[in-house]
Amino acid sequence: MAVCARLCGVGPARGCRRRGAAREQRRGGDGDSEPDTDTEPEEASGVAAAAEDDEETERIEGSRPSAGPAEAGRAPLSLLELPPELLVQIFGSLPGTDLPSLARVCTTFRRILRTDTIWRRRCREEYGVCENLRKLEITGVSCRDVYAKLLHRYRHILGLWQPDIGPYGGLLNVVVDGLFIIGWMYLPPHDPHVDDPMRFKPLFRIHLMERKCATVECMYGHKGPHNGHIQIVKKDEFSTKCNQTDHHRMSGGRQEEFRTWLREEWGRTLEDIFHEHMQELILMKFIYTSQYDNCLTYRRIYLPPSSPDDLIKPGLFKGTYGSHGLEIVMLSFHGRKAKGTKITGDPNIPAGQQTVEIDLAHPLRLPDIENLRDFSELSRIVLEVQEQVRREEQEEEQRQEGEDRSQQAASQPAAQPQGGGEGAEGEETAAGAEGAAQDKAPASQPFVLPMGVISRNEDYPRTCRVCFYGTGLIAGHGFTSPERTPGVFVLFDDDRFGFIWLELKSFSLYSRIKVSFQNAEAPSREAFDEMLRNIQSLAT
């Protein structure tokens, strides 16, 4: 702002004012670019101050005093001497958050910043609004209103969020959709069709009904939009509240609401579900989630960062979890480990918990097809690797304890690099062994589930790329007695993988969620790791 002030000749320095006064005298009249001394109160967002000026947009004309004959051929010395249409182009290329400060420089800048072309460009470039914003003139809403009172005001809620619905969690994507901000709840496809696309439904929307303020509407229920409220608690947390919960109720009472919910959630009726345990789980979920139909809190989640060394591209997957149906899992890579974190969960393993962990340093060589059908043979191979991993962990702990003792007792500094060199050499050897094991693995190999292993989806791939030793988290109802048990991670292709739970004799198939989520990238690796820790601590 200080630079702009000096350029236009109205800066705080006495020389600036003196030169500005002399220039006005030479031009033979008073210009309309005197310093702006208005002191309007600024809104919290920093943008709405520019949106509260005049009620109508003015055309830019006559804002430049005519130059004298001696000045006609010289280059402009100030931004004020540039043509107004050029200033519109310059100001339109600046971030919208900088424009209110620019408007306080002088009255000329303020008048130019009332041009809707500038704000139309900011809406398009910063928020992707591609609608014909000229249609807003009919409703009396300007592009500046859309930017300041809708897009910029609610920018902090754009992106991916996990609702706090006890163990069930969820996936909410808040996006700019035309001249609306809409919160879409993403739901897995109906069980067990894991390869089907995701389903989604709107939970709320925000739009400008008039120039005064944006309107929040709840979209829950079957009676259309109704009054709602959004409160931004802090940077990575916000809450929604419905002010008309009677719109959520149905004329047939709770029984009709349950049957409608069952058709939407599971794609079937209760009579179609013969498994008694599954009926209990479904009824329990309906009772629990219906308590949150009037007020919900959301916490931000990020998509996992990727690296060229990753086994496959990390991201969100939908997977089968027995009687619990399909759930959403986030696959991320952490050095020699890969982790699957639940975004949606169930009463046994709630959302936020790490459902599977893959040890990328221990690939598995599966037996031939005939022997692979024998569950005991696969179990023998996995348990041998489990014992090997346990020995390596014990040796690593002993080596670390020995290094700590030697460092404490060492009196000569020369002895310290020697131990560190051995550790680095050990890491290189392990990394080399991992790479050699993967190089020896064939490009693809036949795959079939062993006899006795239960799968919700029998249409799984019959070839796989590679398998790794891993562990899966199991627990009783209410997340009681949780423990990690051995299993097999099976990579089928870039978009599908599976996990064999040895103790449960169960198989889960996962398929990638192919949706381009905006505003969901983590600002840093540290921010993503912190997010994982936070959602896991909340689940615990």
UniProtKB/TrEMBL annotation:
It holds the Pfam family F-box-like. Residues 12-72, 392-444 are annotated as: Disordered. Residues 76-122 form the F-box domain. It is found in: Cytoplasm. PROSITE patterns: FBOX (PS50181). SMART domains: FBOX. Coiled coil: none annotated. Keywords: Cell cycle, Cytoplasm, DNA damage, Ubl conjugation pathway. InterPro entries: F-box-like_dom_sf, F-box_dom, FBXO31/39. Residues 21-30, 392-406 have a biased composition (Basic and acidic residues). Residues 31-43 have a biased composition (Acidic residues). SUPFAM superfamilies: F-box domain (SSF81383). One of its GO terms (cellular component) is SCF ubiquitin ligase complex. One of its GO terms (biological process) is SCF-dependent proteasomal ubiquitin-dependent protein catabolic process. Pathway: Protein modification; protein ubiquitination. Belongs to the FBXO31 family. This is F-box protein 31.
